[in-house]
Amino acid sequence: MKKYEWLLFDNDNTLMNFHSASYSAFRGSMREMGLSDEEIDYKEYNKHNHIVWSEFENGDIDASTLRPKRFQLFFDAIGHTKADPLAANAAYLNHLILHPDMMDHAYDLLNSVKPHYKLGLITNGLKEVQRPRLRAAKIYDYFDAIVVSDEIGHAKPQKGYFDHVVSEMGPTDLSKAIVIGDSLNSDIRGAINYGLDCVWLNPDQKLSGELNPTFEVQSVKEIIGLFK
Questions:
Q1: pLDDT digit string (tens) for 132-162?
Q2: What domains are defined for the chain?
Q3: Contact 180, 8 (CB under 8 A)
Q4: Burial class (CB in 10 A: 0-12, 13-18, 19+), 36
């Protein structure tokens, strides 16, 4: 394998376990909002959340629209018409910071590669939570560059996002940079469209369609083996 200089890590469900953190944060925040146990339906919320995030990644909406829209759709679906979607979003984000859950072997991965590579953190996240979550998980200082979509007005897989990433890296041979992430659309499509190599973390063994990632692994532990 060729020698890389920069490893550009996605965060959610690549390094930090967003699935478990989001579930806990959603339940805690909805109780705070006064919903009953019967109304706290994470699967229903997550369905709408995925739709809204896809709109954001495609550039159809901005982050200020995303924040309330996902909760408004959820409240409409369960018939809870009195809840304030912006307040719900704020409560959810506050709870999310309290759950800095990590993927299995993620600390091992970072400790393994940090002495040998420059590390970037490239995340489609909201500015209220992404940097605090990294600090809560005690991984903030591993990274030489951190790019949060909500801070720059572009999201993966958009070209503008990767333009910003490259500007943060400084003069770099892009053939020596590789994107590592779990999202086929935001991480893998974004990397391929920009001409970057990529590692697709694919634990569910999904099909990649027309996309051909440089490497494909099923666990974080396998990534360690790629960069020894």
A1: 999 999 999 999 999 999 999 999 999 999 9
A2: 6-16+100-226 (3.40.50.1000), 19-97 (1.10.150)
A3: yes
A4: exposed
